Amino acid sequence: AHTTIVFTRYIFLALENRESKDDRSVCAIFHAVCKELEDISFAYAYELIINTLKQATGDYLQLSHEQIIDLVNYFISQLPLFIKQKLRLLVCES
Length: 94
Hints:
- By secondary structure, the protein is mostly helical.
- It has five helices and no strands.
- It has helices at residues 2-21, 29-36, 42-60, 65-77, 81-87.
- Helix 3 (42-60) packs across helix 4 (65-77).
- The longest helix is centred in the N-terminal third of the chain and has 20 residues, at 2-21.
- The protein is rod-shaped.
- The N and C termini lie far apart (73 Å).
- Residues 90-94 have low confidence and may be disordered.
C-alpha cells in the first residue's frame, strides 16, 4: 500500500510539473512546430479555394475563361453579406 501511495504522489507531482512549465507540450517541440505553421487569413484561404475552383472547372468541365469568371461572380454574389464583408470582396478578380 505504501508503494502505491508513493507512486500516486509521484504521478501527481510529475503532472503538476509538466502543467506548470508548458501545458501543451514537452520541451520546445510545441513552439518549434507553431513557428512553422502560420495562420492564413480567411480571405487568403477563400482566394485559394476560388482559384482551385477556377482551375477545376476549366479542366474538368472545360468551361471557357469567361464562363468561369461568370460562375465565380455569380457564386460571390450569392454569398451572405457577413462573408462578403469579411472578405471585403465586391468584385472577383481573375
